[in-house]
Amino acid sequence: MKLFFSILTIIIFIATGTIANANSFYHTSQLHSSLSFNSHSTPGEIKLYVHKRSDLDYDKLNRAVVAVKNRIGDPYISGSCAKKMHLSIYIIPYSTLNNRSLMKDMINWSSVSPENIVGIFDNRHEYEKGFIYIADAYGEAEVISTIAHEMYHAKQRANCKSGPEDDAVNFEESFCNTAGFC
Fold this sequence. Notes:
By secondary structure, the protein is of the alpha/beta class. Helices cover 45% and strands 16% of the residues. A five-stranded mixed sheet has the order 1-2-3-5-4. Helix 3 (58-72) runs parallel beside helix 5 (140-158) and helix 5 packs across helix 6. The chain is globular, with a radius of gyration of 16 Å. 31% of the residues are buried.
């Protein structure tokens, strides 16, 4: 009976489009089982999830995601290996993001410094999927600047490029200095 309900749950998620496929469901199921989310799809295959206990302005975050995407351009259609990326951005509690046991299937901790983090783009999956995880502990301006930074990394990934961290930092600073969100 338990197997039946597990299969039914996966089918419902797939059918509603909430989670793109069973792999994505497995990837984020621990987050969805421990937190409730407000979610919204934005242009360009980006889905924003903000945990419901957050005090952040959901609409402002959504507008910021669209502004970052517009500033980056459409990175998903140029380049020899570029693919259309379905990007999911999770705004979660700081304690959840830095819980190594909960996030072990979502973050490659061996590539992260031993200190706690405020945001990360998970690039361990196929090029068509991207996951960004951001802690909401430092307020709206920090969350939005981290969104800009990590979406830049997603752009690099979608275009099969890697670059120095300075490129993402420069984009984040430029966006925050001119867009009026940070």
